[in-house]
Design brief:
about 0% strand, disordered N terminus
Length: about 425
C-alpha cells in the first residue's frame, strides 16, 4: 500500500513542482556552507523523480555536452582547490543553475508555445530588479544621477559576500540580460493589441531599465546600447540601415578613440565624475595577473573562487588598492579559465556560442511572430551579457548567475519547439 501511494505521488510529479522546489531551495544553494552540503543530494533526487516519470534524467537539449563539461570541471575544481569550503559555494551555485536550466526547459516544453516560459522569465527579471532596488550598494559615477543617490534605499544588507549590499556592476550585468527580451515582448504584444500584457511587460521593463541606469555601469550601458540598436534595426525594417549604421559607428568610436577617452570626454562635459583611466589601469593589471595564473594551472584551474585571495601572494600589484579580496578578474572569460581551467572555458564558450547560433536559427525559422520575438530578445540579451563580460564578470556559480541560465533556457526551449514543429 505504501509503495502504491508513493508510485501514485511520483506519477503526479510535474515539472512545475520541480521548479517550485528549486525556487524554495534557492537560498540554501546560493548561500551554501559546508554544513549545508547534504542539501546537494536534492538535485539527483529531483532528476531521479523525473526519470521515474519520463524515463530520462534531464530533457535532451542541443547543449548537453558543453553543460556536462562545465559540471565536470566544477567537480574537478573541488579536487584541486586549496580551499574546499570556499570553492563549495560557487560549485553549488553552478550545479543549482544547471538544475534550474533543465527544470525550466522541461516545464517550457510542456507547452506548445514559449510564451508561458517567456512570461516566467520576465517575472524573474522583475523580481531581480526589485531585490536590486533594495539591496544595491549605490555609488556615484555620473553627476546627472547625484540627486537620486540620496533617496535610494539599501535595506538588504549583511548577506554573506554582500555585507554592504550588491555590487552595482554585477547588478547591471545581470539585468541587461533581460532587457532585450522585455523590449521584444513589449513590441510583440503592442502589435498584437494585447494591452494588458503589454502594460505588464512595460512595467517590468521600466523597473529593470531604471535599475540598470541607476547602477551606473559604463560597460553595462555600452553593451546594452549597442545590442538595443541592433534589436531596433531588426524590429523596425524601415529604419534598419540607420540603426545598424549607428551601432557600427558606436563600435568604431570605442575602437578608435578607446573607452577611456570616451569616458573622459563625458567627464569633461560634466556627465561623469569617476576616473575611467584609473578603472581601466586596474583592470589591465588584473587581466595580466589572471593570465599568469591560468598559465600556472591551464588544465584544472586553481579552483573556483580562490584566486581572488591567492593572487596577492603569487604576483605583484602596483595599481590595485591593497586589501585581501580581489573579487574577480573583471573579465568573464579569464575568470572562467582561472576557475575551471581551459577545458572549462572551452565548455562555456561552446555553450554560449551554440545557444546564440541555435537561437538565431530558431528566430529565422519561426513562423509565429511572438515566437520569433522571444528568440530574438533572448539571443540579444545573451549577446549583451557576453559583450559586457569583456570588461566585467558575473562568475559562474555566483548568486545572480541564475539570470543568464534562465534566458539561455528560454532560447533553447524555443529551439527545441521549432525543431519539433
Amino acid at each position: 500500500m505504501t509503495q502504491s501511494w508513493i508510485a501514485k505521488r511520483i506519477a503526479r510529479w510535474k515539472p512545475a513542482a520541480e521548479l517550485v522546489v528549486l525556487l524554495v531551495a534557492a537560498p540554501v544553494f546560493l548561500f551554501m556552507r559546508p554544513v549545508l552540503t547534504p542539501a546537494l543530494a536534492l538535485l539527483p533526487i529531483l532528476w531521479l523523480l523525473r526519470y521515474r516519470r519520463q524515463r530520462h534524467f534531464i530533457p535532451r537539449t542541443p547543449v548537453d555536452w558543453p553543460i556536462l563539461g562545465l559540471a565536470l570541471m566544477a567537480l574537478v575544481s573541488l579536487l584541486v582547490t586549496p580551499d574546499p569550503a570556499g570553492s563549495l559555494a560557487k560549485v553549488a551555485g553552478l550545479l543549482y543553475a544547471i538544475a534550474l536550466f533543465y527544470a525550466l526547459v522541461d516545464w517550457g516544453l510542456g507547452h506548445n508555445t514559449p510564451i508561458p516560459l517567456a512570461t516566467l522569465v520576465v517575472g524573474v527579471a522583475a523580481a531581480t530588479a526589485l531585490l536590486s532596488l533594495f539591496g544595491t550598494q549605490w555609488t556615484l559615477k555620473w553627476s546627472a544621477l547625484e540627486s537620486a543617490r540620496g533617496v535610494l534605499p539599501t535595506l538588504i544588507r549583511n548577506l554573506p559576500g554582500a555585507e554592504s549590499g550588491f555590487n552595482p556592476n554585477t547588478v547591471s550585468g545581470t539585468l541587461i540580460t533581460f532587457v532585450p527580451l522585455q523590449v521584444a515582448l513589449l513590441w510583440g504584444w503592442m502589435r498584437a493589441r494585447e494591452g494588458r500584457r503589454a502594460a505588464a511587460v512595460a512595467l517590468t521593463l521600466v523597473a529593470t531599465l531604471g535599475i540598470v541606469i541607476l547602477a551606473q555601469s559604463r560597460a553595462g550601458w555600452a553593451a546594452l546600447l549597442l545590442c538595443l540598436l541592433v534589436l531596433a534595426g531588426l524590429l523596425l525594417r524601415r529604419w534598419r540601415a540607420a540603426f545598424l549604421l549607428l551601432a557600427v559607428a558606436c563600435v568604431l568610436v570605442l575602437l578608435v578613440a578607446g573607452p577611456v577617452a570616451v569616458s573622459e570626454w563625458l567627464t569633461d562635459q560634466g556627465l561623469a565624475t569617476s576616473s575611467a583611466e584609473a578603472s581601466w589601469t586596474t583592470r589591465n593589471e588584473r587581466w595580466s595577473r589572471w593570465l599568469w595564473g591560468i598559465a600556472d594551472h591551464p588544465l584544472s584551474g586553481s579552483g573556483m573562487d580562490v584566486f581572488r585571495y591567492q593572487a596577492w601572494d603569487r604576483f605583484p600589484f602596483f595599481h590595485t588598492p591593497l586589501y585581501g579580496d580581489l573579487g574577480h578578474a573583471h573579465q568573464t572569460y579569464l575568470h572562467t579559465a582561472m576557475d575551471l581551467g581551459l577545458p572549462g572555458l572551452i565548455a562555456y564558450l561552446a555553450l554560449l556560442g551554440s545557444t546564440l547560433v541555435l537561437g538565431v536559427g530558431a528566430y529565422r525559422r519561426a513562423a509565429d511572430p511572438l515566437t520569433q520575438l522571444v528568440a530574438l530578445g533572448g539571443v540579444v540579451g545573451l549577446a549583451a551579457h557576453a559583450l559586457w563580460g569583456m570588461v566585467d564578470v558575473v562568475p559562474l556559480g555566483a548568486r545572480t548567475n541564475f539570470a543568464w541560465w534562465t534566458v539561455a533556457a528560454l532560447v533553447i526551449t524555443v529551439v527545441i519547439q521549432e525543431r519539433r514543429a
